[in-house]
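Possible regression after last week's pipeline update?

I re-ran a chain I had predicted before the update to compare outputs. Posting the input and the new output here so someone can diff against the archived version. Not blocking, just want to make sure nothing changed silently.
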Amino acid sequence: MTKKIKKIGVLCSGGDSPGMNCAIRAVVRTAIGEDLQIFGIQKGYEGLLENNIRELSVSSVGNILQHGGTILQTSRSKEFRTPEGRKKAADILKSHGIDALVVIGGDGSYNGAMKLHEEHGIKVVGIPGTIDNDISGTDYTIGFDTAVQNAVDAVDKIRDTANSHARTFIVEVMGRKSPAIALKVGICTGAENVVLPAENIDFQKIAGDIDRGIKRGKTSSIIIAAEGEEPGVGYLIQKNLKEQFQLEAHVCILGHIQRGGNPTPTDRLIASQMGHSAVKALLAGEKASATVFVSGKVIIIPLANCLRKKNEFDISEVDLLTSLSI
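New output (post-update):
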């Protein structure tokens, strides 16, 4: 007979993403509505190892829906990556009588949760929280829509000054391995070219696209570049355009501004649905699962299906970008 869950812990791990607060709120209020005790773990796995745990109430999550970031804060933990660290974490959870753990984060957070379950029997459920939209098994991750909106707003402003001065701008967006933000921002801002991570940069094509626009009377060009693994890809493109093609370009790196700000309605809704579903999954007896967004619905699947990064992209989006940027 399965032991009835009485206490649940919730934490955020890895990079923050807008909408995490919405998920926390949904977890807390759903749990309390089911007569469960709910505990917030401050600063992720690192905070768990420091026993930084407090019980949450309905009022603990009041008026947080509209705020970016996470009231529980987040971090990355080297100690938790070790077997000894995970044993310590499991012992701390058990000392509080916590039966299950809701983890909001990306693939690294998920892998840590899976090991905690496999090694120590802790019931876990993952909620995908990352602006990169790069977790396998789900079409969508919390924070992606807000990050894209932030980037689109910034590029629209840059386009104004680019038009005024007849300039080319290279705008670097987040996405060390994921092309998702760069592609969507490129389509939504009418960019002349998008440089994706881990691809060989075709400087000849970029220069040709800029030159083609100039010949038909365009007064500006926007190049969107995913930041990639190596810093400064925007400056690399700028340098090559200058040296090889005598084309002047300005670089704007958006950086962490993409993570901040009020979550969009889409992020608020999906995060709330996922938080609610996470608690319901634990009550239904799930032991190692994840909430995912597939075909327009939030469903529960095995956590094992979500443990790797999703770096592929929809080729139709590239075709659309190419067709519209002539």
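Follow-up from reviewer: compared with the archived run. The mean pLDDT is 94. Marking as no regression found.
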